[in-house]
Task: inverse folding
């Protein structure tokens, strides 16, 4: 019986990360959607860290809305100025490539500025 309970707890553990900071999570998924130029993204596992400085979110997503959970493997990490609205993006990384205002690469800096611009329009 203890083994079954432990197994159930381990299986449920990834879902415990959901809805820790819904506003941050929604904003980060919006950054992914805008970057991918998609009308929607399917979100998989979400980890949010509103208590850290800077507050952040890491999530997996797919542009295929009918994707099976195992195939939702694209990742985005977002960092924000503060954990409360309005959410000002300070950095985001997609599959290991990061974009920020202080980025030396002009293309990456431009993508960051575009992400900020699109977010400001949605507020």
Result:
């Amino acid at each position: 019986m203890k083994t079954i309970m432990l197994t159930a707890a381990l299986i449920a553990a990834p879902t415990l990360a959901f809805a820790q900071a819904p506003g941050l999570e929604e904003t980060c998924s919006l950054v992914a959607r805008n970057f991918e130029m998609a009308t929607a993204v399917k979100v998989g596992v979400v980890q949010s860290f509103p208590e850290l400085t800077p507050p952040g979110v890491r999530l997996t997503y797919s542009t295929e809305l009918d994707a099976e959970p195992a195939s939702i493997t694209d990742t985005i990490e977002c960092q924000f100025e503060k954990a409360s609205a309005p959410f000002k993006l300070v950095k985001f990384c997609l599959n290991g490539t990061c974009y920020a205002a202080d980025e030396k690469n002009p293309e990456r800096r431009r993508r960051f500025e575009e992400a900020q611009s699109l977010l400001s329009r949605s507020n």
Observations:
- The CA atoms of residues 78 and 92 lie 4 Å apart.
- Residues 17-122 form one domain.
- Residues 1-18 have pLDDT under 50 and may be disordered.
- Helices lie at 2-16, 22-36, 106-122.
